[in-house]
Amino acid sequence: MPYELYPISLRLPLGLGRVNCYLIRTASTWILIDTGLSTRQAALDRALAQTGCAPGDLDLIILTHGDFDHTGNAAHLARTHDARVAMHRDDDAMLIQGDMFHNRRRPAAFIVWLANTIFRFRADDHYEPDMLLADGDSLAPYGLDARIVSIPGHSKGSIGVLTGKDELFIGDLLVNSGHAPAMNDICDDPEAMAASIERLATLGVDTVYPGHGAPFELHAFLKGS
Q: What is the value of pTM for the model shown?
């Protein structure tokens, strides 16, 4: 099941860098991994159109976790493309209720306020996922040789997408926005994150596509960690 990959990089506010979405085209479907912030909706729509993915073409949206910079355009794309939205049940209330701190250790009230102010997740952006994903779920029904990998730590419901080409779309477990790939500093459960990283070494992963930063080879991270 070959596929074409179209990375989409969207700017974050206040000089916070960029967030990655990954559009995959198979012989029969279009699949988008993560959706960026709702404030970058127009930029995402343009990027999709430039690949040939027109309104109504997108079949499946996979959300690697519930942070608003990854879920912000899920509701919009579900409406414009009639696409199904899928994520892990441990993070689904973040999208349904518009609370990305649900099911997490809650930070100080100021941090909650700041995140909500910066990311501007509106009532129209709330959405109830059409599918709940679990570890081992196959994406073969969508024409993609890939499976879901549970990798909690950054959030309880964090997942990755591991393809038959040994490419892993990892969400925010690891980042590569600095001098080298590293664990994400934002961690809900350090023990779960450590276990998820240990698991990566057993999956046969070659290339990692993070939510933030450039792709990298997993062995380079494991060697330096």
A: 0.96
Q: Is the backbone of residue 215 left (phi > 0), alpha (psi -120 to 50) or beta? A: beta
Q: Measuring CA to CA, how many Å separate 201 from each of 37, 205, 219? A: 31, 7, 8
Give the amino acid at 18.
R
Residues 6 or more apart in contact with residue 145 via CB below 8 angstroms: 1, 139, 163, 164, 165
Q: From 140, 142, 134, select the one nearest 164 (Cα to Cα).
A: 140
> How high is the pLDDT of residue 45?
98
Give the Cα-Cα-Cα angle 25, 213, 163 (nearest 5 degrees).
35
Extract the residue ranges of the chain whose pLDDT is less than 50.
none
For the chain, what's the residue count? 225
pLDDT, tens digit (0-9, with 9 covering 90-100), for 104-150: 988 778 777 878 888 888 999 999 999 999 999 999 999 999 999 99
Does the domain at 4-224 match CATH 3.40.50.880? Answer given as no
